[in-house]
Amino acid sequence: MTDAVIEPAPAKAAPRTVSEVLAQSQVEAVMDELERDLVGLVPVKQRIRDIAALLVIDRLRTGLGVVQKQGSAPPSLHMSFTGNPGTGKTTVAMRMAQILHRLGYVRKGHLVAVTRDDLVGQYIGHTAPKTKEVLKRAMGGVLFIDEAYYLYRPENERDYGQEAIEILLQVMENQRDDLVVILAGYKARMDTFFQSNPGMSSRIAHHLDFPDYAPDELLAITDRMLEAAGFRFDAGAREVFADYLARRIAQPHFANARSVRNALDRMRLRQASRLFADRDRAWTREELTTLSAADIRASRVFTQT
Hints:
Helix content is 53%, strand content 10%. With 305 residues, the protein is an alpha/beta fold.
């Protein structure tokens, strides 16, 4: 009896065209998901496509044997996402992690989302292990730090945020080929943070500003959320909700798509209470999946304005 000889699988030929890289990585599927999941944000989506194009061309260069000289670092892809809550920053970060993985920039393509509390300790010797543990979990993917400006609190001389920043700076510089850091938050506060931390500013290659959604974009987001949840508006309810949005936008603490989702959740509660009150009625599918104008007008937004 002789052992079977297993021939090694032939190595795949390196891609020679952009189309071949796209076919092998299937990164366009992620871009299509980004387009489908997010309304508007045209400048943001274009910047993501530009970054994807850079990585595709780098892959072609590598396939042709173009080698960077010793001491030359890979392109820095650390980013800053600025904008108000609910503008899609976390969603774009998730898609960015997938794109980076599919195009071979990071090993895993997962997203680790944290805030100051996950990085900064409350006593001497606590911050370094906390920060290093988060970085360990994020390696091979993307580290998303929301409200990153809270890491820096110069008014408190006993604050340990600066220690976390220094550890982050070292990793962002020395391990940029295995980790991408995205700092996020309100634009004005992020600008102040970068002015106070030039070392951090110099390591951020891409600044993406996420604008607030226009009223018609918020209505389009509403339609998508309703469809995903298996609901619809009855006749006239969409116009009432447009009125609701105009009033809600003018109030404090409006959070774009997040506020839309919260409003729909409250409308579903009112619809459920309305249907629940008639316990013996056999509701139809249409009635169970329809939100009425009355479910919207019951909001305090109409009484407060």
